[in-house]
Design a protein that fits this description.
The protein has about 160 residues and is mainly alpha-helical. The chain contains 7 helices and no strands. The chain is globular, with a radius of gyration of 18 Å.
Length: about 160
C-alpha cells in the first residue's frame, strides 16, 4: 500500500475514534440523568452541549497527533508533555509517521521499529492503549503506545533522551 493510502487509513481511523468518543461522551454525561424524577432534567440543549464538548478535532499533522495523544494519555493516566514527545519524535523519525528502521538489531531479528517513535510490533501490542488504532503506523496510536511504554519503563517519555 502506498504511503498516501496508509496516511488516509490513519485519518479515517482517527475520524471513527472521534465519532465513537463523541457518542460515548454523551452517554457518560447522560448516565446521571437516568432515573431522574422529572423530565426537565434531560433537556435537548444539555445533550447537544455534551456531544459538542466531547467532539474535539485535531489537525492531521504532527502538532495535532501529539495533542490528540496527550488527550488520550490524560484519560488513561499516562504521563508526558508535548515537549518531551516532540523531542523524541524528532530524534527517532524526524516527524515521519511512515519511518521504518531496517538496519538495527531489531530489524535483523525480524521486528523493525516503525512510526513516529520507532516502536517494534511486540512493544506496540503490549503497550497499545484502548481507543487507538492497532496500526503501528497510525501516528496517534504509535505516540500513545510509545508513551505508555516509556511511562512503564522510565516514568515518562519526558525522561527519555536517547534510543529506548
Amino acid at each position: 500500500m502506498s504511503a498516501n493510502g496508509q496516511i488516509r487509513h490513519a485519518f479515517t481511523g482517527r475520524l471513527a475514534r472521534k465519532l465513537a468518543v463523541a457518542g460515548t461522551g454523551a452517554a457518560v454525561l447522560a448516565l446521571p440523568l437516568i432515573g431522574a424524577t422529572t423530565a426537565s432534567a434531560a433537556t435537548p440543549a444539555a445533550a447537544t452541549t455534551a456531544t459538542t464538548a466531547a467532539a474535539t478535532t485535531y489537525p492531521n499533522n504532527l502538532d495535532g497527533w501529539i495533542r490528540e495523544s496527550l488527550d488520550i494519555m490524560a484519560q488513561h493516566g499516562i504521563p508526558g508533555t508535548y515537549d518531551g514527545i516532540y523531542r523524541n519524535i524528532m530524534r527517532e523519525s524526524s516527524g515521519n509517521p511512515m519511518a521504518i528502521n531496517n538496519w538495527d538489531i531489531n530489524a535483523i531479528n525480524g521486528t523493525p521499529s516503525k512510526g513516529l517513535l520507532q516502536v517494534i510490533d511486540p512493544t506496540f501490542q503490549a503497550y497499545h492503549v484502548p481507543g487507538t488504532s492497532w496500526d503501528p503506523y497510525d501516528p496517534v496510536a504509535n505516540i500513545t503506545a510509545a508513551c505508555n511504554y516509556a511511562a512503564d519503563r522510565y516514568g515518562s517519555m519526558d525522561n527519555v533522551f536517547s534510543a529506548y
